[in-house]
Amino acid sequence: MTIIRTFRLALLAALTGLTATSCLTPPEYPTTPSIEFSSVRIKRHFNPGPPVSNRADSVFVTISFQDGNGDLGLSNADTVPPYRYKNRDGSINRNYFNYYIQPFVKQGGTYVPVVSGSVGEYNGRFPRLTNVDTKEGPLKGTLTFRQNYRLGSPFQPGQEVLFEVSIVDRALNESNKIRTTPIIIGGL
């Protein structure tokens, strides 16, 4: 009798659990990705001795994201238009990247963008966050992007920097832009 009662309670609990989970509706997020700053950290790579340019810092920027249809990330196969690396005129295509990061350095009390010689020098690509055959749906999570900076270019040791970040989905919808908290590059 006790075994039958235990079995009934277990079956009732299982059915109640299935019913409860089938009633949950997925969250609704806009189809344009939305991001928030989570953290920035630095890992120092000390190479003893001069010159300073032999030393580097790895910067790890973590953001949280939400996307309504989950079309985030690019695969290695995503190299045809609009994701081709170079445009027809030979210039670098901004759409090749899906993680945009702009460094800013503190000068005279304000942060100014670090201007590089080429489009996308600091930008990167992150892989697809869902399988190709996964049903389209809301997606939420975190991304950590690592960038190495050799000291002396573009930053001098001891400079205060921060980063502005945005991401783009496969439909080329760009998220909001966030700024990290400042860090000191090449400090001891």
Features:
188 residues; 5-stranded antiparallel β-sheet; 3-stranded antiparallel β-sheet; Immunoglobulin-like; 8 strands; 1 helix; disordered N terminus; mainly beta
The CATH class is: Mainly Beta
Q: How many structural units, i.e. domains?
A: 1
Helix content: 10-25%
Give the overall pLDDT as a whole number.
Answer: 84
C-alpha-based Rg, rounded: 23 Å
Describe this protein's structure.
- By secondary structure, this protein is mainly beta.
- The protein has one domain: Sandwich (Immunoglobulin-like).
- It contains one helix and eight strands.
- It has one helix at 2-22, and strands spanning 34-45, 56-67, 99-107, 110-113, 139-150, 160-167, 178-179, 183-184.
- The strands form two sheets. Strands 3, 4, 6, 7 and 8 form a five-stranded antiparallel beta sheet that branches. A three-stranded antiparallel beta sheet has the order 1-2-5, with no helix packed on it.
- Strand 3 and strand 4 (110-113) form a beta hairpin.
- The protein is globular and about 50 Å long.
- It starts with a helix and ends with a strand.
- Residues 1-7 and 9-22 have low confidence and may be disordered.
Topology (elements, then pairings):
Elements (H helix, E strand, L loop, with lengths): L1 H21 L11 E12 L10 E12 L31 E9 L2 E4 L25 E12 L9 E8 L10 E2 L3 E2 L4
Antiparallel strand pairs: 1-2, 2-5, 3-4, 3-6, 6-7, 6-8
